[in-house]
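Batch manifest line 196
LIGAND: manganese (II) ion
JOB: complex structure
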Amino acid sequence: MQPEHITGPGIDLVLYRQFIAPSDSARLLRTLSEEIHWRQDRIRLFGREHAIPRLQQFQGEAGLHYRYSGLQLDAAPWHPLVEQLRQKIAQVVPWTFNCVLLNLYRDGSDSMGWHSDDEPELGLNPVIASLSLGQPRRFLLRHRQLPQQPKIELTLDDGSLLLMRGSTQHHWQHALPRTRRACAPRLNLTFRYITG
Ligand SMILES: O=C(O)CCC(=O)C(=O)O
Ligand SMILES: [Mn+2]
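JOB STATUS: finished
ARTIFACT:
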């Protein structure tokens, strides 16, 4: 499995386009959609509270918490299939992950706004492993300090694994925009390592 490398000023991405075979991804998407206790949390952004435009759950080692936008998520235990995915990723990358944020985009109106995964508990230069299942969606990256730097646009296909490494979170933001096109569900899992 030969990955693609995408680099630029302060950005270091590695994309495995078919990390999971389509037959496996369909089963994973179906089972995880049904078995996970999905939540639509409310977050505080620019002083206003609103429901996030997607469903999510945080899983990982007992006692871990993830905080963003005024929200604290306590780690639910690993779903056995998610734990299997974590082990499969560990076979190709030299980093370990102790938690994962799962996001379910039910249709094209579900999305994620511009942000970096730079919360203090992720440490300096975190490696994030982002696995996508289901509907391919556009994934955009923009430089935080150089507005003239062109955006990077990727399509995150069914079964793809994207690694964001190095100082990417420090220098770039990413987003998953909404779309008016007909859009089936998509599940994304971002595996992370949180320092205690
Ligand atoms: O769904 C995606 O591809 C992006 C998810 C993401 O950026 C995150 O969970 O922090
Ligand atoms: Mn992110």
